[in-house]
Amino acid sequence: MKATKPRNGKLRGAAVVARAAIFLLFAPQANAFFHNSPDLEQGRAIYEAECASCHGADLEGHPDWRSANEDGTYPAPPHDASGHTWHHGDIMLRDYIKRGGQAVLDEMGVAFTSGMPAFGDRLTDEDIEAVLDYIKSTWPDGIRATQVERSATEALAP
Hints:
Elements: H1 9-26, H2 28-34, H3 40-50, H4 52-55, H5 90-99, H6 101-108, H7 125-137, H8 141-156
């Protein structure tokens, strides 16, 4: 029997680590793990293009957002911490953006006239999620935590 020279342990270990890294980076679960963080820059850009004209460049909303216009609609509210966006769960917020305020409120039986148009024909679900992630990123930790709780409660509702 011929004796073989043992391989260098460091090279062998590096090769194993390299193969494991390649496997992990290209495995489907890794894609979800490594690419699941919000794209805040994309969300900001979409917000600026689609939302800022009504809700304000700094998410400040219309100054008189609590007073109805002559047609009964209310001006755009702020999306910053001073507004009420964070009072709603994610399901409702996504639906409100996608289908428009009036469709959602009518379905909920809420007697309120919304001026919020539907964006479902202009924004993908991913775009809407990016905008919401951007808006949420501006809130203080306590408000974000409250909104997360409301989203969890909303998700459990029948």
